[in-house]
Amino acid sequence: MDSISSPQAEMLLDEEPQGGPTFLDRLFDHGLLIRTGVDGLYGRSGAFESVVEALDRLISRLGAADGAEVMRFPPGMSRPAFERSGYLKGFPNLAGTIHSFCGDGAGHAEILACVEEGRDWTDQQEATDVVLTPAACYPLYPVAAARGALPAEGRLFDLQSYCFRREPSLEPTRMQLFRMREYVRMGSPEQVLAFRESWLERGTAMMRDLGLPLAIDVANDPFFGRAGRMLANNQRAQGLKFELNVPVNSVEKPTACLSFNYHQDHFGSTWELRQADGSVAHTACVGFGLERITLALLKHHGLDLAAWPEAVRDALWG
Question: How far is residue 87's CA from residue 81's CA, in Å, rounded to a whole number?
């Protein structure tokens, strides 16, 4: 729909010779990311975090006038609420559960023996009532529904959380634990679609101000299995999801850094979330991948933050 590119961006993406250090290698070598021994699970340096924090403040400034209610949830949520959300229907392969030891002394001894002998010890654990949060908005819906019907003007929420998706990868933009900043709008179809359109414009302007090449495309969620392909096709056909993509790993397969989603009445029906007139509420959200935007900035402006263009530094740090 909308795209911006630059010769400098393509040059940066092509600068790594075949067989040479990858972008991920260079992030490790510069200490921006820290190895943990698990693909997609990394520590972050102070410099990396300074960009994430600046982006978070920038997003807050962009949405400040809207008066969103701020909520911050931990990276775990209720297992019953997770099951009710329907996430397992579309993404069972991405879900992460939290298990814990619930046994007795004999079970503890068995765990220690397994560890000592290099055998699997996890069969001594049981699922808890907590699962890892897959998207920042998921813990919100039951909380909002418990308040009763929405006011006539609907509601707007500001969220941020670490999220988990089980997809280990050597692409630095595909982390298993990452932070998502979201604004979530609840109300009538007209209210939530106007919200999404507004953030399409704001998000595009923000990324342009950060000097990043971008394209906005119709997209779909990575639904699982044969039935998932039908859901994905329907989602694209109805224009329910747009992504703002930036080339980070390659020009051919750019990375979604922002997403703009219209859920229709899915969460309203699931959680019996009502509008003021009693009809089912519709919802929409805009999501910012804080690590992904940071990686896009590092890719296109270089690994030395002090050498970034002055306009980009001003946008982030004033």
Answer: 10
The tally of domains found in the chain comes to 2
Same domain? For 115 and 259 the reply is no
Other Cβ atoms closer than 10 A to 174: 17
Q: Give the residue numbers spanning the domain of 102.
A: 97-132
pLDDT score for 235: 81
d(CA 178, CA 174): 9
Cite the DSSP H helix spans in 171-280. 189-209, 225-237, 266-271
Q: Is 83 found in the same domain as 29?
A: yes
**112 and 10 together in one domain:** no
Residue 6 half-sphere exposure toward CB, CA atoms < 13 A? 11
Residue 16: per-residue pLDDT: 57
* Chosen domain end from 132, 152, 180: 132
Provide the CATH number for the domain around residue 289: 3.30.930.10
Do both 252 and 128 map to the same domain? no
Among 111, 132, 153, residue at a domain's last position: 132
What are the average pLDDT values for consecutive 10-residue runs of the chain, which has 318 residues?
44 58 97 97 98 98 97 98 95 96 95 96 95 98 98 98 96 97 98 97 97 93 80 83 96 96 97 98 98 98 98 96
**Dist. CA 268–CA 281, nearest whole Å:** 5
What secondary structure, in 3-state letters, does 124-177 show? Answer: HEEEEEEEECCCCCCCHHHHHHHCCCCCCCCEEEEEEEEEECCCCCCCCCCCCE
Q: Report the C-alpha gap between 22 and 5 in whole angstroms.
A: 22
The pLDDT value recorded for residue 42 is 98
Q: Check residue 228 and give its pLDDT.
A: 74
